[in-house]
Amino acid sequence: MLSRLMSSSIRSLDRECNCTVRLLDDSEYTCTIQRDAKGQYLFDLICHHLNLLEKDYFGIRYVDPDKQRHWLEFTKSIAKQMKSQPPFTMCLRVKFYPPDPAALKEEITRYLVFLQVKRDLYHGRLLCKTSDAALLAAYILQAEIGDYDPGKHPEGYSSKFQFFPKHSEKLERRIADIHKTELMMCLGTQLFWLSPLLDSLCCKEIEGFTYSNGK
């Protein structure tokens, strides 16, 4: 009897695997799923965890053993797609920028899209002119530290933040100038959605962007 119970328990464990999903704020969500679970099941778990209702813009991405990135297909088995042994590690990312970002209804959706733009800017995946990049970085700076305060923000204060893979001192000064003079009395994450620049970014698919310095 005991051996049958142990055998049943082992078989049950064999049918389960652990997944860790890295979220856009760099926190992690860990869960146990059945080996035959499909992508949709995991995605629904994450959305429930985040209380994310506007789901259409998001996806789960993973890296295969050959270091190639893929979007998890929700209609297929997770284990068969991963091509590796558990535990599985994946990440939640914005798959498509919303066509009208100002129309997003949920604060959590706006926050996650904001984090994706911030991440893509930092990793050099946004194609935009230097002037537009400076404006986006200034919005991010405003969201991070609020209004410019000469008592709190000495000369060169923006250099503490890394907005791009690399940038010049001239661009850094321009970011600070915009933050000082153009974004006062506004929350960066709110003003961010009013920018016409974001409309041009958000109509594209995430994978299509490359930051171009000086163009």
TrEMBL record:
Gene3D superfamilies: 1.20.80.10, Phosphatidylinositol 3-kinase Catalytic Subunit, Chain A, domain 1
GO BP terms: actomyosin structure organization
GO cellular component: cytoskeleton
SMART domains named among the record's database cross-references: B41 (SM00295)
InterPro entries referenced in this protein's UniProt entry, alphabetically: Band_41_domain, Ez/rad/moesin-like, FERM/acyl-CoA-bd_prot_sf, FERM_2, FERM_central, FERM_CS, FERM_domain, FERM_N
Protein name as annotated: FERM domain containing 5b
GO MF terms held by the record: cytoskeletal protein binding
Organism this protein belongs to: Amphilophus citrinellus
